[in-house]
Amino acid sequence: MTYCVAVKLNAGLVFLSDSRTNAGLDQISTFRKMIVYEKPGERFMCLLSAGNLSISQSVREILQVEQLKDPETDEAITIWNAKSMFDAARVLGAAVRHVYDRDGESLKRAGVDFNVSMIFGGQVAGEGMRLFQVYSAGNFIEATAETPFFQIGESKYGKPVLDRVITPNTPLDEAAKCVLVSMDSTLKSNLSVGLPLDLVVYEADQLKSDRIVCIDDNNPYFRMLHNTWGQKLREVFDSIEHPTWDGSHTAVPLMTGSARRALKKISTPKDKLI
Amino acid sequence: MTYCVAVKLNAGLVFLSDSRTNAGLDQISTFRKMIVYEKPGERFMCLLSAGNLSISQSVREILQVEQLKDPETDEAITIWNAKSMFDAARVLGAAVRHVYDRDGESLKRAGVDFNVSMIFGGQVAGEGMRLFQVYSAGNFIEATAETPFFQIGESKYGKPVLDRVITPNTPLDEAAKCVLVSMDSTLKSNLSVGLPLDLVVYEADQLKSDRIVCIDDNNPYFRMLHNTWGQKLREVFDSIEHPTWDGSHTAVPLMTGSARRALKKISTPKDKLI
Prior knowledge:
Two copies of one chain form a homodimer.
Chain A: E1 3-8, E2 12-17, E3 20-22, E4 28-30, E5 34-39, E6 43-51, H1 53-63, E7 68-69, E8 76-77, H2 85-109, E9 116-124, E10 130-134, E11 140-142, E12 149-153, H3 159-165, H4 172-189, E13 197-203, E14 211-215, H5 220-239, H6 257-263, E15 264-266
Antiparallel strand pairs in A: 1-2, 1-12, 2-13, 3-4, 5-6, 6-9, 7-8, 9-10, 10-11, 13-14
Helix pairs in contact in A: 1-2, 3-4, 4-5
Organism (chains A, B): Hydrogenophaga defluvii
Protein name (chains A, B): Peptidase
InterPro entries (chains A, B): Ntn_hydrolases_N (IPR029055), UCP009120_prtse (IPR016545)
């Protein structure tokens, strides 16, 4: 599997991906799932992909040459000349459909779902940042202030901390920390997600990023975060009172009377019901 | 959906279930997913169920009258007279197969999977405690010291804290706190899991339990835990350094040279590839 997450903040965008790919548990490999498209000063885009690796690799390969026709000018729109991130996302959707047209029928015959999901975000000079999640059908949705992050792949383990922390006002470095904690929880609980990680932090309106890092076992920040988070989480856990079963103010009231009888079958079996 | 979790410790067993059932998002109801079978001093068993509600309700109904033949004595084995939890789990497996024989074909015609999963644990006088996870086919696996907990339903959100805390030596009340934190994370991130919760704490060799509680919105312990956990988690998160991008000891080393070029596509598109 895979775990990728991207966040859209007022201050910028943060992208994080793992790099484990597996076809069954005995065929595990490392593949990068992030790619950055940058024309400094003009456009910055980042693409994260999950799902069938042959599909996502094909989409990434095609994406650089894929084009849509502009209905007004009849000119070709590519991710390199699109005037908006929305148009660039349409080009990405078209690339997904292109791969479907090429491979979909054969995959179906082989019993393989056409399964790919992508997160695509960035900024083109002249408009604000945008962040999209693109589905297997090439359609897509956009992140909003109410839903400022997208996750693809093994998303559930790492969702609670994002739900607790991320808002559009979260500062960039705090969001970077948060997605790394989210990834750490996922790594802890799911073998199919693995290091190294690729992290991109994009500051609004820069139209380029120098904060592109590959995080492996030896990365001092991620090691610190992993150890500190695990240890402090444990301290917090230990600091919360255990439940008590008497009358004190945090006691768990014991169930009595009919509520208790509804849950509990006591003693001998009923007569045969069926 | 549903979230149920059960833990087997040296000190006893802990069972927790939510009570939300949904058939699509506009048909949400409250159904209890826990049932306790107790003959004080002789046997204590607890069953948690997830999956198709009509199946799990039928299994629970049948379970009290289901019987297997003992091949040696030709006597009927039920959950009320089984000499071991293993035999009781076999009776439960037989009840699942009984419902499959009755409903499986009709469900298949209606395009509905025969989907049910259960956690079943407890103790029969004369042997140790045991905890099983029972599948749709009526087969089952048993918890061990290495894998002391089972989860069914929406299990991923709440798994990281269990992975971090639970070992066979965890005290009972600490385990009760841990499954409640695990449930709290699940409630936070998934609408299809909801209050009230049913919690059972069983102390080894008691062959009965008085710690059976229903936890709703007003439960003071769960409210305290929910608020404290959320707030302290946030404090821990805030206490961890943000990543820095310079040369300090926890810095995230920036990617340079070929590694960076491998991730980044700069500027103009390649020639047409396809």
